[in-house]
Amino acid sequence: MILPVDGGDGQCDEKTAGRFPHPDECQLYYDCSVTYSPPEMPGGKGVTECEYPLLYDESSGKCMKEVECGSRMLKKNGCDYYNNRCYSIRCPPCFLRFPECEGLTDGTYPHPAKPGTPRCMVCKNERFVEEIYCPVNVITT
């Protein structure tokens, strides 16, 4: 891992190297080896997003599941991640891929967008973790 060398403004420029956390959002970080960031990403050059449900861990310099975000905003819903937004009519609706777990305790629930099917969602810390076949004890009707 390359240790971050901040150029002073918290962004990647000719004086900055390495990876470091985005100041506002926990799933974002700066990777100064990246030369392009999509325009919808806040923060300019080098802004990179962890894959949902991962978050950027400052101490390891990696995207991980269990992270202390501090004052950085934690986006609980996968549809709020920039990389999960789709601007084409051919994309499946985001809620099918990333059902919402906000307000739910840790556990397994019937997939809200797939009623009557054996598909369930697993929630942890009010975040969607994975889609699974429902265990026998989860009612899906």
Automatic annotation (TrEMBL):
Pfam families registered for this protein in UniProt: CBM_14
Domain Chitin-binding type-2 stretches: 9-71
InterPro entries according to UniProt: Chitin-bd_dom, Chitin-bd_dom_sf
Designated name of the protein: Chitin-binding type-2 domain-containing protein
